[in-house]
Amino acid sequence: MSAPNSLRCLARPSAIIPRSLTSAPWIAAPFSTSAPSLAKAETRKGVMPGGHVRSGKKMQLGKFKKNAVRQGKSPLPGERKAYRKRIQLSNSNALPVPGLEDVRPADMVDENKIGRVMSIPGLVLDQLRDVEAFKPTQYWGMFRTPSTLLRAETVDLARRMQNAADKKDMLRLVISGERLTGKSLLLLQSLTYAFMNDWVVIHIPEAQELTTACTEYAPIPETDPMQYMQNNYCLRLLQGIRKANERVLSRLTCAHSHTDLPQNIPVNSTLLQLTNSAKEPEGAWLVFQALWKELMSQTATRPPVLLALDGLAHIMRVSDYMSPSFEPVHSQDLALVRLFCDALSGKSTLRNGGAIIGATSRGNTPRSPSMELSLTQRLAEQAGEEAPKHPPYAKGFDPRSEEALKSVRVVDLKGISKPEARGLMEYWAASGVFRAACDEKTVTRSWTLGGHGVVGEMERASLQTLRP
Amino acid sequence: MASSKQSFTTALRSIRRTANGQWQPLERQFEALRVGGSVPRSRRCLSTSPRSRDDVESFPIRAAAEIDFAPRPLERLPIARPVPASPSYFSRKPTFQDGFLRLEELMREYGKLPTIPTEQAERIAWKSFRNFKHALGEEIKESEFHRCMALVKRLHRIHPDMKPEEVTSALEAYKKDIQPFTRTDTKPIIDRLGRSLGTGRRKASTARAWVVEGTGEVLVNGKTLAEFFGRVHDRESAVWSLQATERLDKYNVWALVEGGGTTGQAEALTLAIAKAVLAHEPALKPALRKAGCITRDPRRVERKKHGHVKARKSPTWVKR
Description:
The structure holds 2 protein chains of 2 kinds.
Chain A: H1 2-11, H2 79-85, E1 117-119, H3 122-130, E2 147-149, H4 152-166, E3 170-177, H5 183-196, E4 200-204, H6 208-211, E5 218-219, E6 228-229, H7 231-244, H8 246-249, H9 271-276, H10 284-295, E7 305-310, E8 318-322, E9 328-330, H11 335-345, E10 354-359, H12 369-382, H13 399-404, E11 409-413, H14 418-431, H15 440-449, H16 455-463
Parallel strand pairs in A: 3-10, 3-11, 4-7, 7-10
Antiparallel strand pairs in A: 1-2, 5-6, 8-9
Helix pairs in contact in A: 3-5, 3-7, 4-5, 7-10, 14-15, 15-16
Chain B: H1 2-18, H2 26-33, H3 53-58, H4 94-110, H5 129-136, H6 142-156, H7 165-171, E1 196-202, E2 205-213, E3 218-220, E4 223-224, H8 225-228, H9 232-238, H10 240-244, E5 251-258, H11 262-280, H12 285-290
Parallel strand pairs in B: 3-5
Antiparallel strand pairs in B: 1-2, 2-5, 3-4
Helix pairs in contact in B: 4-6, 9-11
Keywords (chain B): Ribonucleoprotein, Ribosomal protein
GO biological process, one term (chain B): translation
Protein name (chain B): Small ribosomal subunit protein uS9m
């Protein structure tokens, strides 16, 4: 009787022998973006290595016995948001990329460097962090050092900025484009260029912070029509300016004396002192105004100024603020926004040259028909085509926004070319986040799945599984 | 009734007008209409209008003719109102009824002819109930359809050597438009611009894909893959036939998709692109079949059942 049993044994699959933790190479992943604290989960009792936390069905004898799930300590208020909004700029688990160079000012205007990934130098990195140029949605935390791809658009933009600085001219430009095409990153690259060339950089990282009624505002006396200052925001902005531009500002001296400020600033004190004089929200707008006046001064030598803003649609509409007579306030009646829009429209000029760059955004952005129409009109004009007319029956148009965008240059960002895509993917592969061989086939695959080289979509298609 | 009377009088008036503005006796007018065929000329006519002199001369007053009581031969009067072509016009399903009656008639006539067993008869895909109903555009019952099809199949079994032409032609209407058993594959073609067209279906979606040699650009309804499909998985399934055969960087695709949802559209594209690629490289067929890009997935959404919340889901059990 034993024979059939033993034969049956042959038909059954052999029992699974659990692999030991130490000898299994597949458990020791060479690269991980998750926090080391999560690794403890694998050594817990009763959980198979690499298996699920739930170890399968278990018999339960007591009918109403509750599952003893240990909840742990719940995060404190604000902790979750801080975790969500944290910006991690490097990852020591990622492989160092051999041959990765720091970008130099000359590289950004060099055509031969198109398609290469270059890292941002440490000094500039701190400056960029001070002006809040990095965003939590970007993939910086997957690589060893923050690096960017030099695209054709980057080089073109850097050249235009160089031209503007040389001729003491004013570059007025709007970065537009589809979702995830790298608009904010191109803005970051322009900031990088400005920092590396010792420009004075004023960056508004999120325009919505100015117009969605989330920061305090007060009417500026003796203005008609009434304008509003946002002292709290101005203070934060000034602190960012001071930190990021410390080196440049400490070299420049005041051409005028400023007596109406919270602190008396005599002639020949440095601009850094002037900026430092804003300690309290009260008077922050005055200090900002004084700083702007100094930067625009014709009597002294001043470096070029970069005024950058992300989320342009937010300032191209009526804001969420209310006037004292309880009427909605137009965004461009907010003094800081007005300063930006006047410069963008060319109404006010940067006397010492510089650039005004606004970037549109496709996430959490209000619809601004005027901005959309103006940008398509500018693009058509740039291409030498007939610009589309104002639709006669459509609603929601805003003449002030159209006025602001009347003569800007528009960069319409699209997908990257295949050589650029290859440069980027080779960088991914060298960093250890892209495990397949990087050849024509894989590059084309990512390029096609990413909608003809839309960088963010390429990342989604290739690196999404690695996202922490 | 009133309207017919009215139209009759207007007809009469129009006839009157044609006769050079002269009044004509009713008798003549009836004659012109040919109602009743043989109205005796001698009968006196009634008219309220003054007669012209000619009329008086041509119709002298005479006594009525004798009434002929002899049985007349039955003659058909011409019909003055339109009669429908089919006697089953006033039923809800005239085409079906006529067809059915025709089949019965054929059965009475040729039912005695020798038959062959079903398996020896020519294999034919008959229209399904749904198909047939749709083609006819009439509300017919399934049971009636099956009775009809039984006749069709019986007539089809008549020995081919003796099968009359009228039977063959009568059965044509019950065949499917596309006969899979006798159909030969149409060879896909590449047009003068180097494009090949493939179609694919999945669930409720239909896709047409034009494939040309190129560098891996894909446009679906004028949008790129990333714009058209939000899920990366759908993008991959859309170009799976190219990716599985490592041809993604060799062709460009321009596709039109309609119907259904995103998954269905993506998988319809898989089939469409595979078929179009086969026109360029027929040798890829085994590889594509292995990748699952050749066979159409026939599954559709399952119908809801009574007593269930969805197709399978039962309502929650309640004690009372």
